[in-house]
Structure formats: structure tokens, C-alpha cells
Design brief:
With 110 residues, the protein is of the alpha+beta class. The protein has a single domain, classed as Roll (Nuclear Transport Factor 2, Chain: A), CATH 3.10.450. The protein is built from three helices and seven strands. Strands 2-1-6-5-4-3-7 form a seven-stranded mixed β-sheet. Strand 5 and strand 6 form a beta hairpin. The N and C termini lie close together (11 Å).
């Protein structure tokens, strides 16, 4: 099971990195209102801290296209995934994919 404090703590810790820039991208798929990409550790950490408590109970650790990630739903029927790009031991990029066409093509292991 997923540690509820991992992502918020990792992104929050990256706030103190003056040279690093965190990025959070959203791919919700066609027919859904697009969300703008968030850039900057404070913006990313703020979004994660605000939204993670609602969804953390549904998260399962997973490997998404070879990267560390979280799976929401099942491997055969994913609802969404988060994948993480790490830099210097911190989360530098988060990609949220809820686009059904892309979810079908992802390689997900858990």
C-alpha cells in the first residue's frame, strides 16, 4: 500500500531546492476540461497537498512505463496513473494520465 506522506513530503522537500523546478502535467483525455501544467515546486507541492488526501486511499504503487508511479484502478482497468521523474533524489516531474486511449497503451506493473 502507498505511504500517504511520500509524494507530498518529496515534493515539499523539493521546494527548498533553489536550482530545481518541479513540473506537474495533466493528460485527462478528450472531452475533459484541460488543466494547465503546473511549474515550480511551490505550485506543484500546493496542488499535491490539496488533492492527495482525497485520492491516496485508492493509490497502489506501480511501475509506469519503467518509472516509479501510482495506479488508481486496476492494472486491467486503470482509471489514472501518476508517474514520477526523479532528479537528485527528489521528485522533479509528475505526469498524471487519465486519458483512456493512453491508459490502454501504458505498460503498468505492480
Amino acid at each position: 500500500m502507498y505511504d500517504a506522506g511520500f509524494v507530498p513530503a518529496s515534493v515539499k522537500a523539493s521546494r527548498s531546492e533553489r536550482n530545481g523546478t518541479a513540473v506537474l502535467r495533466f493528460d485527462l483525455g478528450p472531452g475533459r476540461e484541460p488543466l494547465r501544467t503546473l511549474t515550480g515546486a511551490a505550485a506543484v507541492a500546493g496542488h499535491v497537498m490539496q488533492t492527495a488526501p482525497r485520492f491516496v486511499a485508492f493509490a497502489r504503487l506501480a511501475v509506469v512505463n519503467g518509472a516509479a508511479g501510482l495506479l488508481f484502478g486496476t492494472r486491467d482497468e486503470p482509471i489514472s496513473v501518476l508517474s514520477f521523474t526523479l532528479s537528485g533524489g527528489r521528485i522533479a516531474e509528475i505526469d498524471l494520465v487519465a486519458n483512456p486511449a493512453k491508459l490502454r497503451r501504458l505498460a503498468i506493473q505492480h
